Amino acid sequence: RAMEHDRALEVYDIIRTIRDPEKPNTLEELEVVTEGGVEVQEIGEDEYLVIIRFTPTVPHCSLATLIGLCLRIKLQRCLPFRHKLEIYISEGTHSTEEDINKQINDKERVAAAMENPTLREIVEQCVTEPE
CA–CA separation, 3 vs 95, rounded Å? Predict the structure, then answer.
C-alpha cells in the first residue's frame, strides 16, 4: 500500500500546480484538487489505475470540462509510470457532472477538444509550469 500512497502523492504533485483557466490561482489553492481526491490502485505489473476527483469552484462551472482536460493532458505528459486514468467530478458538486465525467473520460472527445486551437491554447497555459 505504501507504494500506492507514494504514487498518489506523485500524481497530486503534478496536478496541484495546474492553473485555473479563469483565475491566477492554482487548482490546489482553490481546493479544486486535494490530496484526498487522488486514488491510485495497482492493476497489473507496474501499471496503476489513477482516479482523480475534483471539485469545480462553482456548481454550474462551464470550466469543469476544461479543468478535467487540463488534468488529463498534464498527467499524460508527466506521469512517469504506466497508468489508466479516470477523472471525475466530486459527487454532487456540479449540475451536469455525469455528462462531464463522460466527456473527460472519452479518449475521442478529449482528442477532438485538443484539436480545437482555442481550447488547446487555454489548456497549454494552464498546464505549463510557471518559470
Answer: 35
Count CB atoms within 10 A of the CB of residue 91: 10
All three cell numbers of 4? 500506492
C-beta of residue 119 within 8 angstroms of C-beta of residue 13: no
pLDDT single digits (tens) 67-109 = 999 999 999 999 988 999 999 999 887 778 899 899 999 999 9
Of the candidates 129, 127, 131, which has an alpha carbon nearest to the alpha carbon of residue 72?
Answer: 127
Query: Which residues, at least 6 apart from 28, have a Cβ–Cβ distance to it below 8 Å?
Result: 16, 17, 34
The domains of the chain, with CATH numbers, are 1-127 (3.30.300.130)
The rounded distance, in Å, linking the Cα atoms of 7 and 5 is 5
